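Lecture notes, unit on protein representations.

Consider one protein chain, 397 amino acids long.
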Amino acid sequence: MIEPKTFYRKLDFLQNKIGLGKTGKDFLFSIVKEIEMTLGKDLHIINGSIYEKIESDYFLISTSPKVEKILKLRLSVEDPSIQSVVKSGTYIFDRPVFSADGIEDNSNEYKTHAAFIVSSPVNDWIFVFELQSGWIREEIDLCLNALRTSLNYRLISESVKNELEQAVQIQQSLLPFVPPKMPGYQIAAKSQPAELVGGDFYDYYVLDDNTLGFCIGDASGHGLPAALMVRDVITGLRMGLEKEMKMVHTLKKLNAVIYQSVYSAKFVSLFYAELEKNGSLLFANAGHPSPLLFDGENFQILEPTGIVIGAFPQIDISRSYIRMPSGSILVLVTDGILERKNKRSDLFENERLKSVIRENSSQNADTLLFRIFEAANSFGKGKKWDDDATVLVIKKF
């Protein structure tokens, strides 16, 4: 019997290897070797092998050259040995059941097989080891079950990580990297998610040579569900605007789509506007924090013209009009900026935002954008963002 302190130290070492080791095509093979090297002598286990599930069968994909010729190369999921492992998770057999029929093992030493199954969201593998004389059931069970749990967790975590990384890439591909050029204007925007992916968004639409459409929005919540809703909103707007639908009609159609979605918290605040080169601005504000238009002296507030998108099957929403004079600045933000908190739980709010705009009104759009984020971040003492934060700045010369 292994001295307990030594055994647990070695088992902990193996679990750390599984949790921190570099994954890739050789990851599972390397773990087999680590098990043999670390605990093989103590547990009396040798010749680790791996079977991979491909369609309805398990195929031998890795083993020691010494035993390759005496192992079955293919096993059906209906094979009783496979079913025993799948049912129990870890199984110790009373004979070497994975040996090929009709092939003799010429060694005189007692042997049997122990196996455990490892699963990821996309595939299954069965690890098989030979047990030599002297093994103890409790030690084998404890060790293989612990390693099986660690491997399952690592493979599932890796899959989730990959899915989130894909979600990040998808969301980043939806948000425009570079603003469109419009003579007489500077445009800058940035979105800072609270998690890997978020529920804030902005977008631009070149409607014709004279008119630029743009939007900013905030899907309820944050994280992956909000990011998926963002995808639907951006796609819906792009499709509707490409079909030359009118502003109000497009938003009402979008509302119906979001309302019928499967999300538990399924609403979006959205500001959409169409800006002409002469400064005419036609907009609809569906429950979004009111953008600020600064003319160098005073602020005008672009109030909501309807409720949020997706909360009800039908909404009433209207258009409104404002004009951007030369030298004016339009600033659009999401709640993550306005509701940024300091240590006393005070909110950043509109008045602080106005001060930043006023103090930096002579700067270009990119610098003003930077200063707004800088001020909000400093107000929160640099702590992690509690909510997604987005800013869009348009400055007219």
